[in-house]
Amino acid sequence: MKKMWSGRFSGESSELLEAFNASIMFDKNLYKQDIAGSTAHAKMLAKQGILTQDECEKIVGGLAEILAQIERGEFEFRLEDEDIHMSVEKRLSQLIGKEIGGKLHTARSRNDQVALDFRLFCQEAFLQIRGEILNLIATLNEIAKAHKNTLMPGFTHLQHAQPVSLAFHLLAYAFMFVRDAKRLKSSYERNNLSPLGSAALAGTPHNIDREFVARELGFGGVTQNAMDSVSDRDFALELLFDISVIFTHTSRLCEELILWSSQEFGFVSISDSFSTGSSIMPQKKNPDVCELIRGKTGRIYGNLIALLTTLKALPLAYNKDMQEDKESVFDSVSTALNSLIILNQMLKEAKFNEQNLANACKKGHLSATDLADFLVREKGVAFRTAHFITGKCVARAEELGKDLSDLSHDEISDIDENITPEAMKFLSLEASREARKSQGGTSTQSVNEQIRLLDEWLGRNA
Ligand code: ARG
């Protein structure tokens, strides 16, 4: 079987080389982008008088037929065709004849062709993943609306710290995902440029119109240096990085759901449809989805590091090393989409246990800071002294086996003259939460504002 590039070769390729060199088994994923790019290229060549109108129509028609064949599952991808670019071009010549089919590659190289196909793929991925992130934000915001008054302990060092609402805690994630969505959009906008027409590395002597191709493909413009355009993959790195940050966030959310669904916490129950059982312990219900998303963070980070390392210190311009750019990106994109879709569905069905969340607030004297703040604000006590007095009250609560918020005035009034009956209302957990009215705080008022901002942002970005 003759290779398309076999002109200067007299010997046959080793079969080992063929298998080792080929990328068709994974870059066939790019068939849509490859055909779209070739179609735009052919139209441009005709507009510039490089192809006749008739030649262009045959090429465009042939490409459409190939697309249909691939989508019907009738196209056989063969190792010997090396990659998607040569597979499509070879089939085109079989369909419309070598004379015309052989003209498609005028003013083009596989180097700018693959840079184009891969960039188109990444551009679509930025938007698809962003769409799933928006769905997740909407779900978190809806859960927040239902749990504005669900009290729970806020943690630092995984120790009970101050009372917050469940809404407030979940909104923390919603705002992380808003930044992720913005990051994806800005990556999309920065990279929305067509590299086609860069040819092998130095541009082409043919009178091409790169802007035309860019417009045909939905790009905002063209790249500015041919050598850069065929040799960098920073758009793919950005995609891998953006996905990595998303997984940093989802891994934290999933970790909390795993903890919260344990017997120790009992804050949430994951629905049966998203839990798995044990093959030996009949009573078990495991949060496998969360564990898997947490676990997949490893390969997501690995994919980013892999491509960074592949590109590091590569001399300009194209090197075959760059064929290694694709599998990690395909893997990260499908992993991200699948994970976000299932996480969203699982959250929609999760049931938060309000009673257990409230009971947890009764452990750890969560309103201690509020008592100290009262003494400073209303009684003019120095903060250090207020801290000490409050510490004494906590010790008393421990002695009595109670939570600070459950003490009566009689039980602590002897500790300091400033512990007045009025002080007692600052020990209430609800009051503690409601007191945090600062912008971004956990009071109902502040949380309502956060929910409103998210609704408004989602409305503008839908
Ligand atoms: N399959 C190749 C890749 O993915 C296409 C570009 C090949 N270019 C070349 N000069 N051999 O990178």
Shape verdict: elongated
Q: Roughly how many Å apart are the termini?
A: 51 Å
Structural class: mainly alpha
CATH architecture of the largest domain: Up-down Bundle
Helix content: 55-70%
User: How many structural domains?
Assistant: 3
Q: Indicate the CATH class of the largest domain.
A: Mainly Alpha
What is the CATH topology descriptor of the largest domain?
Fumarase C, Chain A, domain 2
Q: How big a fraction of the residues is strand?
A: under 5%
Strand elements, count? 6
Major sheet size, sense and barrel closure: 2 strands, antiparallel
Main sheet strand line-up: 1-2
CATH homologous superfamily caption of the largest domain: Fumarase/aspartase (Central domain)
- Give the bound compounds: arginine
Question: Rg to the nearest angstrom?
Answer: 31 Å
- Low confidence ranges: none
Number of distinct helices: 19
Provide the residue-averaged pLDDT.
96
String of helices and strands: HHHHHHHEEHEHEHHEHHEHHHHHH
GO molecular function: argininosuccinate lyase activity
Subcellular location: Cytoplasm
Pathway: Amino-acid biosynthesis; L-arginine biosynthesis; L-arginine from L-ornithine and carbamoyl phosphate: step 3/3
EC number: 4.3.2.1
